[in-house]
Design brief:
alpha+beta; five-stranded antiparallel sheet; 7 helices; globular
Length: 364
């Protein structure tokens, strides 16, 4: 036995003192880099036959992105470019163990696609694509949880109460700190839809709960795609200033509509904020200053795209806020509201001094 141990130690010493180990580690390093490059370039098409709050929805995701699925509803996930995988015979989709525990069901699967029923229980799940020894991609599946608001709260997170009990959402997405920066589309993350807070304690409280509906995600992405080649818009700089709002936060906004589409996850307030990224609407009309004309230009673009059928039908509003900072002095901010109400077009514009609505902005 002692001899065997000495022999093993000798062999280990030989490996360290030779090129063998260095070569072995180099090969492992190269293979890991190759796997990372492949993983970053892999794209998957997702088709929901009955998506969460949308009858049909298609999107494209990459590794590390999340998709939101309705419980117990079918969806299809397939590799978009099969040519990037040379050893398809060894590739497959693998589900996290809690998938099956929560009544998910694989309806069909092969080396490049999987067709399955989402779990019936709300939560966060993982779909892994690759081989046994080399997982190449991880898609995060989020199923909204069936939760009731009790005394204006969900698990200690202050929500307030919905104005119409019959319209109160029955499912909410639970946002943990780990989920905040996870992308849900090419340009949007969960953090874009987290409600504002009235206190520092509420701001730092986790988990948070939100409603996100695919029609508004699709509308924002449609806007960005349509404007991507426009010289006046840096569409990577389109930034969500306000996404989902809890009812209590919405009520705290002066003159806000109680039945705002924000509280149902169907509206966002956006600005163009790329150069510099400072929270201020960029000078997109190139008149040398940041003013209401920049917001009007974006609103007109939304109006045109809706009219041409390139964006879902809904509301478009222009806002200007003048906040007093001293005698006769103000800071001025602008944003554009868009929503995916889906029934008819609505257009408006208002300007405020402090919290008081002072007049209309005519932009059409």
């Amino acid at each position: 036995m002692l001899t065997s141990i000495k022999e093993l130690l000798y062999i280990f010493y030989y490996m360290l003192s030779s090129n063998f180990l260095r070569t072995f580690l180099y090969v492992i390093f190269i293979l890991s880099i190759r796997s990372n490059i492949i993983a970053q370039s892999l794209l998957f098409r997702v088709i929901f036959e009955d998506a969460y709050n949308a009858k049909h929805y298609e999107t494209v995701v990459s590794s590390g992105m999340a998709i939101i699925a309705a419980p117990s509803k079918p969806f299809y996930l397939s590799l978009l470019d099969e040519s990037k995988i040379t050893d398809r015979a060894n590739m497959s989709f693998a589900l996290q163990e809690n998938f099956i525990q929560n009544n998910a069901k694989v309806l069909r699967s092969d080396s490049t696609c999987i067709y399955l029923l989402a779990p019936d229980t709300g939560g966060t799940y993982s779909i892994i694509y690759g081989s046994v020894y080399s997982p190449l991609a991880r898609i995060i599946l989020v199923v909204p949880k069936k939760i009731k608001i009790k005394d204006g709260k969900i698990n200690g997170y202050i929500m307030g109460n919905y104005p119409d009990r019959l319209k109160t959402p029955t499912r909410f997405i639970e946002i943990t700190t780990e989920l905040l920066d996870v992308p849900i589309s090419s340009n949007l993350r969960f953090s874009d839809f987290v409600s504002g807070s009235l206190t520092l304690e509420q701001k730092n409280y986790f988990p948070k709960y939100v409603v996100i509906q695919y029609p508004i995600v699709f509308k924002i992405e449609s806007l960005i795609r349509a404007l991507s080649n426009h010289p006046q818009f840096n569409c990577k700089g389109i930034r969500v200033k306000s996404g989902y709002r809890t009812p209590i936060y919405n009520d705290a906004i002066p003159e806000s509509v109680k039945e705002s589409y924000h509280i149902y996850g169907l509206a966002v307030d956006i600005i163009v904020d790329a150069n510099p990224r400072d929270g201020i609407f960029d000078d997109v009309n190139n008149n040398g200053k940041q003013d209401i004309g920049d917001a009007i230009l974006l609103a007109k673009a939304c109006d045109y795209l809706e009219e041409k059928g390139l964006m879902p039908v809904g509301g478009v509003g222009v806002y200007e806020y003048r906040t007093p900072i001293g005698k006769g002095k103000y800071t001025v901010s602008h944003f554009v509201h868009i929503d995916a109400r889906g029934t008819k077009r609505a257009r408006w514009g208002y300007w405020y001094r402090g919290t008081k609505r002072m007049g209309y902005i005519r932009w059409r």
